[in-house]
Amino acid sequence: MPNREPIPVYVFTGFLESGKTQFIKEIIADPDFTENERTALLLCEEGIEEYDEREMMRYGTAIVPIESPERLTPNILKRVEQKYDPDRVLIEYNGMWKLDDLIAAFPARWELYQIVTTVDASTFELYSNNMGPMMFEHITTADLVVFNRCTDALKEMLYQKNIRAMNPRATIYLDDVDGNSEDYNRNMPLPFDVDADIIDIAPEDYGLWYIDAMGDPVKYDGKTVRFLGQVYVGQNVPAGSFVPGRFGMVCCAEDISFLGFICRWPGAKDLKQRDWVRVTASITVEMLPQYRGEGPVLHATEVIPAEKPAEELVYFN
After folding, report:
1. 315 lies in some domain
2. Residue 139 in contact with residue 14, Cβ under 8 Å?
3. How many CB atoms lie within 10 A of CB 54?
4. What is the pLDDT of residues 164-177, one digit of tens each?
5. Pair (231, 256) in one structural domain
6. Same domain, yes or no, for 150 and 204?
7. Per-residue model confidence (pLDDT) at position 83
């Protein structure tokens, strides 16, 4: 009988010369990843660095050129599957093509496993200034983001811009020219004391706290916080709860979103939409559909009316 197991797909995206090819070569050469298994590598972009086909064959990897986005169809990709019978598919994707078009073309057995975005730190600001929405999409859709060719000055710039705000749940690494790798999330400084009896979140620090709590909710399990926020109540909020939060702009004006947490409070029914309140609450980590997994749930001990802050919109740098 033919194999009907799902085929995991790894997508590597980023702009031209961002380091995708070198990253993929290192993965393919890792025996823990490729030993005794077949890989189909779909090549949607050709940069300066090239693959040695004979070397790739040694690792059980077949290179399949995809010359244009029009070649990304379910029928063509199904023929790739039938010809190479891969245990996995790697796709070096063209950073100028739409990711949704690729995923829509997956055959039935292809299952998206991981999206990796590589970024050349030395050109990050240039691309962000000229192609901001596309750079934003590369980072926000990724499970893993690797900034390579980092100098100390570029690392400092990336920390100041608070890249984590674009994608709180992604793993982010800063790789320098000597091959050293730094975990961005572990080294991102926080402007408040997470070990205090009550963690006081200043109005200007709400955005930093939000992305840290969403990205690492276990860090705040059992902690107590105090912060300023606006009230949101709606049909998707459980009875006896409300959502205190702030409106934040991550990338540009088109990306303004309400950033808040489910908060249990007996007086929630008496709160008015968009009122400003100061909330003191303990935190537990729970599975909720609103979070699509685990997330921080607040249990308010005090909710009092408050004046709005000088700056109502939250920024992340």
Report:
1. no
2. no
3. 7
4. 778 877 889 999 98
5. yes
6. no
7. 96
